From TrEMBL, chain A:
Name the record gives this protein: ABC transporter permease subunit
Record-linked CDD domains: TM_PBP2
Domain ABC transmembrane type-1 stretches: 74-254
Gene3D superfamilies reported in the protein's UniProt record: MetI-like
Main location: membrane
Keyword presence, Transmembrane helix: yes
From TrEMBL, chain B:
Protein name from the UniProt record: ABC transporter permease subunit
Transmembrane annotation, as ranges: 65-85, 97-122, 128-148, 169-199, 219-239
Location of the protein in the cell: Cell membrane
Keyword Transport (UniProt): yes
CDD domains registered for this protein in UniProt: TM_PBP2
Membrane topology according to the record: Multi-pass membrane protein
InterPro entries: MetI-like (IPR000515), MetI-like_sf (IPR035906)
Species per Swiss-Prot/TrEMBL record: Rubrobacter marinus
Keywords attached to this entry: Cell membrane, Membrane, Transmembrane, Transmembrane helix, Transport
Keyword rRNA-binding: no
Any Pfam family matching the protein: BPD_transp_1
Segments forming domain ABC transmembrane type-1: 59-239
Domain of life of the native organism: Bacteria
UniProtKB/TrEMBL annotation, chain C:
Protein origin, superkingdom: Bacteria
Single GO term (MF): ATP binding
Protein name from the UniProt record: ATP-binding cassette domain-containing protein
Pfam families for the chain: ABC_tran
Ranges for domain ABC transporter: 3-235
Keywords: ATP-binding, Nucleotide-binding, Transport
InterPro entries attached to this UniProt entry: AAA+_ATPase, ABC_transporter-like_ATP-bd, ABC_transporter-like_CS, ABC_transporter_ATP-bind, P-loop_NTPase
Amino acid sequence: MSDAAGHATSPAGSGARSARLDPVRIAQVLFPFGLLALWQVLAVALGDFFVAAPLASFGALVEGVRSGWLGENGGVTLLALVYAYGLAVVFGVVIGFLLGLSRFAYAVFEPIVIALYALPKVALYPLFLFAFGLGISSQAWFAMFFGVFPILIFTMSGTQNVGEVMFKVGRSLRLSRFQLFRSVVFPSILPSMVAGLRIGFGVTFLGVVLSQMFAAKSGLGFVLIQSVELHDMPQLYGLVVLLTLFAFVINGAFMLWERRLTRHRPETG
Amino acid sequence: MSFGAKVRLTRWAVVLAAIAALEVMPRIGFGDSITLIPLSEILPELFEMIASGEMTEHLLATGGAFALSFLLAAVTGVPLGFLLWRYKPLKRTLDPYLTTYYAIPIFAFYPLLLAVLGFNIWPIVFIAWAWAVVAVVMNTAIGFGEVPQVLTKVGKSMNLSRWQTISRIFFPAAVPYIFTGLKLGMVYSLIGVIASEFVLSTRGLGYLVSYSYVNFTTAAMYAAMLLILALAILLNWALGGIERRLYGNV
Amino acid sequence: MHIQIKDVRKVFEGRGDEKVEALSGIDLTVSENEFVAIVGPSGCGKSTLLEIVAGLTEPSGGEVLIGRDPINGPHPEVGIVFQQESTFPWRTVLENVEFGLEMHGVGKKERRERSLELIELVGLQGFEGRYPGELSGGMRQRVAIARTLVMDPGVLLMDEPFGALDEQTRLILGDELLRIWSRTEATALFITHSIEEATLLSDRVVVMSARPGTTRKVVEVDLERPRDSSVVSTPEFGRLTGEIWEVLREESMKTLKGQERGGS
């Protein structure tokens, strides 16, 4: 609406509006610094019993690297994450693709899969502990169980949405099955699949951290719970920020990939 | 048989087969008999726990935290979504952060909140709220943004006041999106509450699962799991029904 | 109530210094109770012209008078029907038609009475309680027409109201529109890209040029009223549409060539 947009173009100071510098861009860059400043203010206002200062938290992480606990537990978390994500990708892509190929299978399973995605699956973690024992396998399979659904759902709907006409084009050019898959079907599915891979990664990571908070002896989730018991606030704040930044960076990489894939495509609803 | 009927029939068959497997697999000795219990033995245990009042405390704790966090998410999320739509630069600034929001393992904040707020209901409510609210905010903002321009032209051609345009055109037109946001918010609130309770707490259905696991009272653990899943399925089903009725008119 | 369009111009500001001239000096007078149709190649600015008359868009130059009032914002005597789906999906047919009256504080009883009257006029009696989603596209456009007419406008503007419908439905709804219009006293300005529809409905057909839009030719339609779509098969109708097409074809070719040069 024009009057809504009217608010958008009221510059605070006209001198600040150069042609190159978009104020929104500047605000986007400044936003994390704003959060950092807020954190510092809260630390001072509430005291270090509640809020560890940014510098102290960073110091705790440096100390963690030096004494080795960060590398050790971070390694466990990373290993579980790679293990879990590998499983989630394989299962999600393969099952999603197969279900997406048939209109009937898609119609039958789509609501079931979406319903499963929306369940509080955390409560089922003991089943994984029974099946795989305490350790990295149970964590990985549990996190896989979190992350597989978005990958599966996006791959499934991407496959289902490959237009019938695409197959007809392929057939009229007498492509082999492999050619059809590699040159027509796969490129059509890819953008939607990558969106699934991105969201699936976030959920898998969440699953790993969650699982390590419960009945674990190592991993960053375990350290988090330990820090609560020891009331080690710098360590707690440092770890939370570290995990958040890690998720942010990986997600950003996936988004760049997505943007590259959809660069040449017209926007669709 | 029509395509739709065949689909529904097959879907039910799949669901029933899954339930049957839960009954049969433990009986034929899949897994060992202590860790897997057939469905027909879990159900009486669940009813027994409900009847004896053992479940009441946990049910109330979970229900209370869920209701509170969802209400907070709705009450804060819809106005925030509206503001975001109204002030485009704000929305454009926050967009990259909002879209990455759900990639963050928000549960990492739960221990932190426990340390700050103590072992009570508030860390749970806060986490569940934090998980739910962004879905409400984003869907509300999208809903207002997606109102077809022609509808606002109709309002303008009739000389409506700004308030009338917002309350009589924008808001009702955005309702389906806001509802989707609230639906997601509800699901996320429930997941948030159960997960927090499971990881570390003193009451609630999630706590009951972890407590029973640690104490090897496997039957009670399965009963609590079953109740959680049943409540979540019921919630999703009810929301789906309301949604169909809402969209039936559109 | 008559419409006077005096030397109306419109220039759209594109990115940077780019400017697109949509309308260059349109002059047109529509007299009281006259039905004028405007046809023109796509992108000639006919919708822009209509929105200027409706007070929804500001002209870059010139002025529009409704009766004696210069337009600067929506005028209470002007009603407009859009091509796009514009019924409110959350309101029933009756509530849709009542909308404008409700917003302007007309009492419940009166607005119900007037709305039911209009619903009957557009032939939707029996559908008062239905939602737009339950109706066909043609029926929804009739709801939109009733919603506009219930305000009793002296001027009725229509921007391809049947543009999204198929040719047969369009002709039949054209008949309906003629019947409805003959019952109102409204002055009508109708935009379409269908020559047949324009000829069937109007007293005069204005052919607009390719962008920037000007009036290329005005064709008097001297077919007897009341008329209906059976006139389509008369030789007189054929002569008129032929005359319009001759001009319109030339202008459409210009538009096509322009697009090809533009390379898109």
